[in-house]
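subagent[fold] <- orchestrator: predict structure for attached chain, return tokens only, no commentary.
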Amino acid sequence: MKFLILSTATGQGHNSASLAVRECLEARGCRAEVLDVLKLRNSKTSRHVSSLYADVTVHVPYLFGLLYRAGMSLSRPGGCSPIFFLNTFYAKQLCSKICTYRPDVIVCPHIFSAQAVTWLRRKSGLTVPAVGLVTDYTCIPFWEESALDSYIIPSASLAAEFIQRGIPADRLVPIGIPVRSQFLRHTQKSEARQRLGLSLSGYIFLVMGGSMGYGNLAALAEGLLSAVPGSRVVALCGNNIPLFRKLSSMSHCITPLCYTEKVGLYMDAADVVLTKPGGLSSTEAIAKHIPTVLTHPIPGCEQQNAAFLARHGAAIFADSISRAVLEACHLALDKEAARKMAEAQEQFYPADTDSRIADYLISLAPPPCNSISL
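subagent[fold] -> orchestrator:
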């Protein structure tokens, strides 16, 4: 049984979700390939789009917010926006890939690939079952321009929003957002600190800015160290080298890190996680059942993520650095508050979420005797 997962590198979240799906499918003996659709026509396109996305969100976030709101106004069921048109440019190459790989099911964790697959269905007669995988706690613009067999959404309580945006109710499958296995395993705090070379005593705050190192992490680190003397801040800077250099020169109590594959272990070592509310990074912290403060949302969907998760008690949203510091200190020092949040997180994100997603995707595969046609 073969699955084709069509991602896009606009931030790391979509790739992380894709890898999580591949991981849980391969654990069941399936084959799964992750493909960046923006590399199909030109290998440089993905890099340029990713760089543009990072530059806009980090340096002019208000512009990203304006574009997001414009997208909410432009996007309509049926696919007629400029974004939909641009995603037809690589459709021929995508069609060729599908014919060669012959997947049983296509998974689209990004609106770009969902729109390209929709166009192929209309123009080329693509019949392979295709599923949208929503990685934010809201219906972002342009999902409604796609026409896939079903959409895996993070929560049943979001169904009304997706229906209002134009996605049929009978195509919504509320299971959750997949996370990689490192966020489902729990290492004892002392062991995690020992493996990472961190102090076994004192409070550790893990500050995360996503793959772009978004947000004022320097001011946040300073505030935490001032509020809790003797504590340490581990700051994940992603690919933001200037931020890494700035934090490296600030204090010996700050441990800055560039991109790392050990995020799950650093979460286990920390007392509190402070992260921008990306759909994946937030869910990964929640899956770890660790006290979580959401701060510095990118205007648009991340603001919706923060509000949704805060309403469910799975995290606290802080709209300023001072509030973030206050809430983080409260969760670190008040064990009862931390325990209540962990209970809410466990209820919000069941441990079998990834398994249920894999089971659902496998159930969509046609019988072996059926051929895949275009």
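orchestrator: received. Logging for downstream: The chain has two domains: 2-180+353-364, 185-348. The longest strand covers residues 2-7.
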